[in-house]
Amino acid sequence: MSVHASAALELDDIQSGVLSPRPTPYTATYLVFRVDDRAHGRELMRRASAVVTPASDSVGARQETWVSVAVTFHGLAALGVPRASLDTFAWEFRQGMAARAEALGDVGASGPEHWEAPLGTSDVHVVFVALAPDATRLKAAVDRARPAYDRLPGVTAIWRQDCYALPTGTEHFGYRDGVSHPAVEGSGIAGSNQLEVPLKAGEFVLGHQDEIGGIQTPRPEVLGRNGSYAVFRKLHQRVAEFRRYLRDNATSPEDEELLAAKIMGRWRSGAPLALSPEHDDPELGADPHRRNTFLYGRDDPAGFTTPSGCHIRRANPRDAAVAGEVRLHRMIRRGAVYGPPLPEGALEDDGADRGLMFAFIGAHPGRQFEFVQSEWMNDGVFFGGGSARDPVTGSHDGVTGFTVPRRPLRRRLSPLPRFVVTRGGEYCFLPGLNALRWLGDLQD
Question: How far apart are CA 336 and CA 356, in angstroms?
Answer without folding.
Answer: 5
